[in-house]
């Protein structure tokens, strides 16, 4: 009895080990790597005026690098562009926004298949969490997607699943995955900025959240192509020839995957974006530091200045010009046709400058502030939030009793009220029914 038992145990153990060995294929030593953040900086001009060290992750026109914009605070990133000094190379993917690494940090693929970014002392800063998941190899694909492959060629992990502020052609936002892009704080500061581009169930939208506002405010949105009855699950950036038999014209657009597909709709919904008379395969979408969305294409058929800004979402020629960008005119300014035209003050409009700012109301006491009126202006939130229907006196008392309220907006024709926790950019509209009342201290 005893010997049968122990034999069973030995056989089970053998089977278990065999099973373990097969299912947990290790990364062959020749495919592992440890890349160290040390050595001289590269010579070429790159985005944000950064210093960089190229590492041996490469597939033309993509190059892995450690870069820094402030001393000893490095981002591990993928760069796009070719080595010609005239073309600033751009960062199209990053691992560690807001969590910079120091000198001698390592980026490594171990035999267990986990891809790890760690400090020199071993502290893990970022990882793919793919240990013992059957990874056999790392590869940079032609479209800039970095992948960890299993023995069947399937993706165990892909960089396309973790965008930050950039989408390459073929890359997606996913409900249940990363469903938004977050802007960068500034050229120098690689932390989250105030803007987000969000794929929502019924629309795509741009949001702004300043340090003082209580919640994000929509300043641009689009929904007409999606339909009320459907829910967005996947948005993919597509570049393709407009006609199968004419490869000279390319389309760039978002392909939407939705639930409840309309049976009468032969093609999935999409969002028109741009047409170009050249190959737009090497394009990325960027949510910029200024909150605008832009497509940039790298053109292999051009020598100098090969980057083309193919399309800007908020631009002079659309209903939503740059005046919809919350910080277009700084802390406080009046915008018209994408230009900052005036600085609204209690004594009327004065010339705009970057220093325009509303006087701070420091007291919550109604006896210590009053409002001044502006006519024919709107706030960026008005287009995409309906406002409450109420009397103007109610609207004002709501703002007065709310210390955080900096002013209110009122449309007299519909008696609609909006409370503002941020002023920033106001848009001039040719409509005297659109009023703004800005809080200002009595002295
Ligand atoms: C990085 O490592 C190299 C060699 O291992 C060493 O000489 C150098 O001092 C290290 N740099 C820092 C900043 O620790
Ligand atoms: C909404 O979806 C349901 C079921 O999927 C369908 O029966 C209905 O006709 C749809 N309505 C519209 C307006 O498309
Ligand atoms: C997202 O949509 C694209 C294009 O339709 C498709 O290739 C991709 O597999 C989809 N991803 C997921 C996770 O559904
Ligand atoms: C669309 O999304 C569904 C659910 O996420 C998925 O099963 C399907 O494969 C996707 N279709 C395409 C074309 O990506
Ligand atoms: C478009 O550019 C991509 C990337 O360089 C290339 O692979 C593809 O062959 C080009 N298409 C045509 C029709 O030239
Ligand atoms: C003012 O706004 C009202 C309602 O929103 C609109 O009907 C009217 O045409 C506008 N007038 C001008 C001059 O834009």
TrEMBL record:
<keyword id="KW-0732">Signal</keyword>
<keyword id="KW-0325">Glycoprotein</keyword>
<feature type="signal peptide">
    <location>
        <begin position="1"/>
        <end position="25"/>
    </location>
</feature>
<dbReference type="InterPro" id="IPR003609">
    <property type="entry name" value="Pan_app"/>
</dbReference>
<protein>
    <recommendedName>
        <fullName>Bulb-type lectin domain-containing protein</fullName>
    </recommendedName>
</protein>
<dbReference type="InterPro" id="IPR036426">
    <property type="entry name" value="Bulb-type_lectin_dom_sf"/>
</dbReference>
<feature type="domain" description="Apple">
    <location>
        <begin position="364"/>
        <end position="442"/>
    </location>
</feature>
<dbReference type="InterPro" id="IPR001480">
    <property type="entry name" value="Bulb-type_lectin_dom"/>
</dbReference>
<dbReference type="InterPro" id="IPR035446">
    <property type="entry name" value="SLSG/EP1"/>
</dbReference>
<dbReference type="Pfam" id="PF01453">
    <property type="entry name" value="B_lectin"/>
</dbReference>
<feature type="domain" description="Bulb-type lectin">
    <location>
        <begin position="30"/>
        <end position="161"/>
    </location>
</feature>
């Amino acid at each position: 009895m005893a010997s049968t038992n122990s034999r069973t145990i030995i056989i089970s153990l053998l089977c278990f080990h065999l099973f373990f060995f097969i299912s947990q294929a290790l990364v062959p030593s020749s495919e592992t790597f440890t890349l160290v953040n040390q050595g001289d900086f590269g010579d070429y001009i790159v985005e944000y005026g950064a210093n960089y060290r190229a590492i041996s992750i490469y597939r033309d026109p993509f190059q892995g690098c450690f870069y820094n914009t402030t001393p000893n605070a490095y981002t591990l990133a993928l760069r796009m562009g070719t080595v010609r000094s005239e073309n600033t190379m751009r960062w199209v993917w990053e691992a560690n926004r807001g969590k910079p690494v120091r000198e001698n940090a390592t980026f490594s693929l171990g035999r267990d298949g986990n891809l790890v970014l760690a400090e020199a002392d071993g502290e893990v800063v970022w990882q793919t969490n793919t240990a013992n998941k059957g990874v056999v190899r790392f590869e940079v694909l032609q479209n800039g997607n970095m992948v960890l492959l299993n023995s069947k060629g399937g993706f165990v992990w892909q960089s396309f699943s973790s965008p930050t502020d950039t989408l390459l052609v073929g890359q997606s936002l996913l409900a249940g995955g990363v469903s938004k892009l977050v802007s960068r704080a500034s050229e120098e500061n690689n932390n989250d900025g105030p803007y987000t581009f969000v794929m929502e169930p019924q629309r795509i939208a741009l949001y702004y959240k300043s340090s003082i506002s209580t919640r994000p405010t929509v300043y641009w949105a689009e929904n007409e192509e999606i339909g009320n009855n459907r829910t967005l699950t996947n948005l993919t950036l597509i570049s393709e020839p407009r006609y199968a038999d004419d490869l000279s014209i390319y389309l760039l657009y978002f392909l939407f995957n939705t639930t409840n597909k309309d049976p009468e709709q032969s093609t999935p919904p999409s969002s028109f974006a741009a047409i170009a008379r050249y190959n737009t395969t090497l394009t990325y979408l960027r949510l910029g530091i200024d909150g605008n969305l832009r497509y940039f294409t790298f053109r292999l058929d051009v020598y100098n200045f090969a980057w083309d800004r193919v399309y800007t979402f908020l631009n002079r020629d659309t209903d939503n010009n740059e005046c919809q960008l919350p910080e277009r005119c700084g802390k406080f300014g009046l915008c018209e046709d994408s230009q900052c035209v005036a600085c609204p003050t209690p004594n009327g409009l004065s010339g705009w400058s970057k220093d325009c700012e509303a006087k701070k109301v420091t007291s919550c006491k109604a006896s210590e502030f009053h409002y001044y009126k502006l006519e024919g202006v709107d706030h960026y939130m008005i287009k995409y939030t309906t406002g409450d229907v109420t009397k103007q006196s109610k609207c004002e008392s709501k703002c007065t009793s709310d210390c955080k309220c900096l002013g209110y907006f009122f449309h007299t024709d519909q008696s609609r009220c909006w409370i503002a926790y941020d002023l920033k950019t106001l848009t001039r509209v040719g409509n005297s029914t659109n009023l703004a009342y800005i809080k200002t201290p009595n002295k």
